[in-house]
Amino acid sequence: MDKFIFSILLILLASCSSTTPADCALGTAETIMDQHPDSALSILNRIDPSELVSDKSRALYSLLITQALDKNYIDVNSDSTINTAVSYFEKTSDKRHLMLSLYYQSTIHYNCKDFSESLITLFRCYDLANELDDKFWIAVSARKISDIYHENHCVTEESEFAKIALNNFRLAGNPSFINYALHDVARAYHCNGDYNMAITITDEVLDSAKVHNDTSLKMKALELRGLSYFSLDKYDKAYDCFQSLYTSPCASTSDSAYYGIMSFYTGKTRQAIDIVNQLNSSPQLSTPLRHFLNYLFYTVTDSTHKALEMMKGISSDSDSALRDVCHQNLLGSVMEYHQYKSAVNQANLKASRAQTVTIIVITTLIIAILISVGRKRIMRQKALIDEYISMSYEMKKLIEEHPKPSPSQDEIAELPLTSKAIEQTDAQSDNRSHPSLKLLEAHFKELNLLCKNFNRENTPDARKKVNDCVTRIIDSIAADTQRIKELENYANYRHDNIMVKLRSDFPKLNEDYYLTFLFSCLGFSVPTISLLLKKENQKTTVYNYRKRLKQKFREFNGENKDSYLEAMS
């Protein structure tokens, strides 16, 4: 044992670098609890509870130490420790640990014969096990509920929960638990008066006990079988069952008492008297058995007065058992539990309603926001399309305003080489357009057609075509240095070399300012300029450019001041 614990602790220390040793010990104890409850208890006994710094650790320790004691057959009669676990886990979403805490809390109440409180707690445990769909713990809690009903002679409920336990143990697939659950079902049939069925089931239980070499299960099955035969007045068969128990090394005082009773009923009086004499000095013999055994003894020995006293004792035992059952008030416990469930359901319903209202409000807000955003987006897209249409008509205007007469030869000679290309585009020269104007005209036709289609059919595909067209126009104009030069030459041609003069008078201007002035000279509006500068969402920036340019021109004292201001008007 010590070697096993030592090896566990070594593994524990090696794998718990990020938590405290006490927390690691808790994790290890919980891991080995089912297979090695004795080792788990040893580990827990080495933990100093003061080293547990978190509420969760203290709650887990309270649960595990109670569980370990129960699994090592050490009865706990105080619920102060386990209450810590229940109180903590009730406030969390950890249903599994709450289920375990409730089970062991109910076990303590059961040990204290407080069956009413135990039953209420077990119902909560049973419900949690069903929520978790844990077949094993459904069975365990149902078996304990069946035990409580057995103790209080509620045979119908005992039978119902015994069968639930058996079915779920079978689903969980644990043979040992299945065999004992089968015995509990047989016991329920016996208490219900169906002795033949109880005997039939104990046949199966005894076979299982033999296969698994389970002496304890065999003893329990033989006792139940003997009592069922006795209830059917089959005393010889009952005698055989209790003789097997009496001769067993594991025989209990009650087994000896039942053997004595069967000896009386089968006419083995001398043997029965010897057993009575042996047991009368035993403090372990229960009062009801002592009364019944001595009643038979005094009856066969013709001690009528004493036999009557034993009969009074038997009657008093029955009255006492009945008072205990009434005192437990199991029906009141069931009603109390249903009231608790009703309160929980009402609270959950209120929370659910509040949650539903919150979801509806949030959903409504989201829908309103989406609608608002959608409307703004549609309006923004419409405004953008309007700007695209405006841009196309500004292109058209620029094309239409292209002068028909040719410049003089002297004017052509004074212009830069690229400006001569403008003269070649004149219709009176060779009927060909200026390259930039020709490009603008082609773009105008395409964009104008797309915008007309969009106004007729506002679809994502039509919108995409317009956007793609504008992107191509911007890339072919603003992003193409050669096109910018051609547009500058055209502006120079129309406005007396104004771009040449601007670059000479203001050599340090930012390029965006030059372009803003150029596009203004060509007659483009602020929205169109913002598109060409790729600042479609920053029209204020273009307004500021124009404002600053005008300010610079007003402060400028050169001969081109008025020309610049006129071009910006």
Automatic annotation (TrEMBL):
Range of residues in the leader sequence: 1-22
SUPFAM superfamilies the UniProt entry points to: TPR-like
Regions that span the bilayer: 354-373
Keywords: Membrane, Signal, Transmembrane, Transmembrane helix
Cited InterPro entries: TPR-like_helical_dom_sf
UniProt key word Signal: yes
Annotated protein name in UniProt: Tetratricopeptide repeat protein
